[in-house]
């Protein structure tokens, strides 16, 4: 087991030394999702009563939002070692004391706008940050929330929000983008607006579904969960005791499946939320991947369908067409980077088109340090040739979560010893990833 120098607040090691070429074996459980975790932390502000969230992933992104909540006066405590978390907002939040450093490290802070506009006519929030993936607009959030009376001015690194006292009922809101966090914000604004609000072009992705089910437990009816039209029957006041368990993370699940594919291993990824990786799986199957799956069972939220997925070592061929992501249901935007390393193991050339982020594809060219043949055609498109001979190298993590993990997976395959430096970026979204891979037989040593 790893020793992080006795610092319990440290979510993981600084650097990793990886001896590649070892096949992995065994089974691994998928943790609950980062993205539902942070949405639910923000949503707990809708409720005057206590919220218990079950098996929340112990990751840096969650810690950052907790630090922000704590700085505003929310009391929280971890209930034992399994990630159960209890939150209790104070009578009034102290928004003047907000932990700006923690807030600026995460984009999820933007999801405070929806809950806060109900009780706070004026407040400031630090600019949303996070991974350096290029510009990530907040305009769709502001456009949607304007209908609930919110207006925002940008000033000295902060959003200055003011909320009109009397607003006409929003009625139907059409989101200008089918984004996950903008949908979350619109839902949280509608949840306490005492009328019926219809949200069109809503994301129906996994974290939005978890958020809706949590809000239903708060006593707010939502029709259309899992579709792109949500009808929210808001309530002006919510004061209840609620206990909710978010579902497993499809991105972690696909990261682990990718680890098996890249290392040509047979491992079982237990608790895979199958509905949210089935396109990734269908595509990999077309590339030659063999896998088997258990019967379906339900996640602790009683809704999300899970399977245990066993990946078998398989010779892969390049995908016939370009690989690109879409809002759900589509190949998940955060799972796209894993196809760069998968395509590098496949025979032939694959084009990967990340239309979403300006910077994320660029980071994937770092795979070339380990022997990959990844060519950047333009900031959004990569041409990947395979199969390649992976060789160990020393690489510094790019400032982006998924590309950093993709490099780690390639190192697990690369002959010789590699060093992955400054892996803090990985702790933002994965709980003890290196240790858990070590339990599958990966030769990883922290330093
Ligand atoms: C906390 C959370 O849930 N984060 C996820 C969420 O972030 P989030 O919902 O914040 O994603 P953004 O709003 O930044 O959207 C990502 C990018 O896609 C563009 N865009 C998005 C939707 C659309 O219909 N059209 C469009 O052009 C946006 O302009 C932006 O450039 O969604 C992202 C895209 O799936 C994921 O990478 C994040 O992990
Ligand atoms: C880009 C991501 O998330 P976030 O919205 O937290 O930056 C991600 O999870 O890869």
Automatic annotation (TrEMBL):
It holds the Pfam family EPSP_synthase. Its EC number is 2.5.1.7. Residues 18-437 form the Enolpyruvate transferase domain. GO terms for cellular component: cytoplasm. One of its GO terms (biological process) is regulation of cell shape. It comes from the Bacteria. Keywords: Cell cycle, Cell division, Cell shape, Cell wall biogenesis/degradation, Cytoplasm, Peptidoglycan synthesis, Transferase. Cell wall formation. Adds enolpyruvyl to UDP-N-acetylglucosamine. This is UDP-N-acetylglucosamine 1-carboxyvinyltransferase.
């Amino acid at each position: 087991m790893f020793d992080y120098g006795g610092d319990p607040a440290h979510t993981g090691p600084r650097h990793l030394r990886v001896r590649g070429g070892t096949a992995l074996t065994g089974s691994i459980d998928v943790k609950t999702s980062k993205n539902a975790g942070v949405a639910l932390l923000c949503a707990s502000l809708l409720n005057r009563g206590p919220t218990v969230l079950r098996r929340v992933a112990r990751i840096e992104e969650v810690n950052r939002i907790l630090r922000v909540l704590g700085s505003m006066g929310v009391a929280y405590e971890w209930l034992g070692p399994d990630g159960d978390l209890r939150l209790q907002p104070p009578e009034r939040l102290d928004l003047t004391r907000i932990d700006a450093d923690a807030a600026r490290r995460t984009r999820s802070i933007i999801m405070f706008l929806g809950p806060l506009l109900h009780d706070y006519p004026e407040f400031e929030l630090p600019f949303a940050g996070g991974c350096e993936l290029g510009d990530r607009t907040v305009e769709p959030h502001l456009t949607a929330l304007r209908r609930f009376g919110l207006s925002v001015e940008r000033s000295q690194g902060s959003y200055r929000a003011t909320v009109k006292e009397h607003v006409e009922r929003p009625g139907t809101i059409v989101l200008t983008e089918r984004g996950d966090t903008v949908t979350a914000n619109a839902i949280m604004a509608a949840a306490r607006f005492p009328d019926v609000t219809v949200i069109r072009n809503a994301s129906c992705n996994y974290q939005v579904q978890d958020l809706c089910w949590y809000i239903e437990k708060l006593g707010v009816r939502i029709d259309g969960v899992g579709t792109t039209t949500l009808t929210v029957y808001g309530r002006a006041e919510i004061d209840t005791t609620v206990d909710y368990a978010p579902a497993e993370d499809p991105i972690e699940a696909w990261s682990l499946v990718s680890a098996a594919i890249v290392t040509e291993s047979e491992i079982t990824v237990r608790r895979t939320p199958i509905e949210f990786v089935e396109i990734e799986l269908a595509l990999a199957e077309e590339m030659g991947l063999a896998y088997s799956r258990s019967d379906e069972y339900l996640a602790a939220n009683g809704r999300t369908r899970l399977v245990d997925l066993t990946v078998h070592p398989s010779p892969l061929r390049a995908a016939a067409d370009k690989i690109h992501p879409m809002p759900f249901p589509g190949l998940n935007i955060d799972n796209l980077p894993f196809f760069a390393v998968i395509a590098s193991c496949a025979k032939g050339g694959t084009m990967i088109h990340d239309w979403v982020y300006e910077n994320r594809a660029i980071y994937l060219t770092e795979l070339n340090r380990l022997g990959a043949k990844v060519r950047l055609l333009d900031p959004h498109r990569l041409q990947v040739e395979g199969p390649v001979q992976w060789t160990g190298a020393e690489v510094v993590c790019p400032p982006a979560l998924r590309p950093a993990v993709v490099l780690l997976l390639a190192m697990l395959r690369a002959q010789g010893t590699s060093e992955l430096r400054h892996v803090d970026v990985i702790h933002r979204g994965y709980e003890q990833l290196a240790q858990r891979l070590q339990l599958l037989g990966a030769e990883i040593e922290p330093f």
